[in-house]
Design goal:
- By secondary structure, this protein is of the alpha/beta class.
- Helices cover 54% and strands 14% of the residues.
- The protein has helices spanning 14-25, 32-40, 44-51, 53-65, 85-92, 104-111, 126-143, 155-171; strands at residues 3-7, 28-31, 73-76, 95-101, 146-149.
- It has a five-stranded parallel beta sheet, sandwiched between helices.
- The protein is globular, with a radius of gyration of 15 Å.
- The N and C termini lie close together (8 Å).
- Bound molecules: shikimate-3-phosphate (S3P).
- Shikimate-3-phosphate (S3P) is lined by residues 10, 14, 33, 44, 78-80, 117-119.
């Protein structure tokens, strides 16, 4: 089975879906944020505060490069992993890229009480989320092999849809 990269804006369900997919398929999960926090010995908000966003983006790239030669992994990407073209190129040659989407209102409800999103700190509003999402829209679109809307949907059903979509690709490997 090829790797599965779950991309998408914050709060679109990447982590939740990655873990359910793992339960169903037996593949292991790699949470990019979690791996970076472990390596850096501090939280994502602390990394942003101490070193800035570009340092964090570099850590994302370095982490992705470690996936070289690995198969059978579900990677729950950070919301901004697609911002660097080299990350997208790397993901493309190492698996299938699934873009999870949701309405800005849905995302707001999911993340509004979460302190772990430094880029939304002080900007927690539907309007701001909408603006960030449209700024990134082309990046997600260009990267994605498949797109799946997650609003008001059953998680298992979404996972089955993902597995169905990538089935053909794995048959051709
Ligand atoms: C980010 C999303 C976060 C995390 C960091 C930056 C982004 O991940 O990587 O705060 O740029 O959208 P989640 O999408 O898992 O919240």
């Amino acid at each position: 089975m090829k790797n599965i990269f779950l991309i998408g804006f914050m709060g679109t369900g990447k982590s939740t879906i990655a873990h359910k997919l793992s339960e169903i398929s037996g593949m292991s999960v790699w949470e990019m944020d979690e791996e970076i926090a472990k390596k850096e010995h501090c939280s994502i908000p602390e990394i942003f505060e101490t070193h800035g966003e570009s340092y964090f983006r570099q850590k994302e790239t370095e982490l992705l490069m470690e996936l070289h030669d690995t198969e059978h992994i579900i990677v729950s990407c950070g919301g901004g992993t697609v911002l660097r073209e080299c990350n997208v190129t790397h993901m493309r040659s190492n698996g299938s890229i699934i873009w999870l989407t949701a309405e800005a209102e849905t995302i707001y409800q999911r993340v509004k009480d979460d302190e772990n999103r430094p880029l939304l700190k002080g900007n927690m509003s539907i309007e701001y989320i909408q603006k960030m999402m449209s700024d990134r829209y082309e990046k997600y679109l260009d990267a994605a092999d498949y797109v799946i809307k997650t609003d008001k949907r059953d998680i298992t059903e979404i996972c089955m849809e993902i597995l169905e979509k990538i089935k053909g690709e794995n048959e051709n490997v």
